[in-house]
Amino acid sequence: QVQLVESGGGLVQAGGSLRLSCAASGGISRIDAMGWYRQAPGKQRELVAKISGGGRTNYADSVKGRFTISRNNAKNTAYLQMNSLKPEDTGVYYCKAEKYYVNSEYWGQGTQVTVSS
Predict the structure, then answer these.
(1) Structure confidence at residue 26 as a pLDDT band (50, 70, 90)
(2) What three-state secondary structure class fits 102?
(3) N or C: which terminus of the chain has fewer CB atoms within 10 Å of its end residue's CB?
(4) Rounded CA gap, 18 and 101, in Å?
(5) Burial profile 90-117: b = 16 or more Cβ within 10 angstroms, e = fewer
(6) Pairing between β-strand 18-26 and β-strand 2-7 as defined by DSSP bridges
């Protein structure tokens, strides 16, 4: 079982930056993709960014050029650098880890990001 703990959320003004971290522990061997998702009030959870075990990345169109996902496999941690934040980036950000060989996924508890205008 993989445990994920997110940190780094908070309140920031539009145009500001935040860096989210997702630390994995427990059954961390053979984690494949890691990703960040967000859920705004009254909306469905959506993919923000994802990174494969080999470092390949993909982003939601709304964050391309502003957000950067990365991972440090030695530290079992994924990061989301968020720049030029907008009020529409507000929401709870969740980290997800996937193990393809056992068809499993694991979620963190989420961290709140609030961008004021």
Answers:
(1) confident
(2) helix
(3) N
(4) 33
(5) bbbbbbbbbbeeeeeebebebbebebee
(6) antiparallel
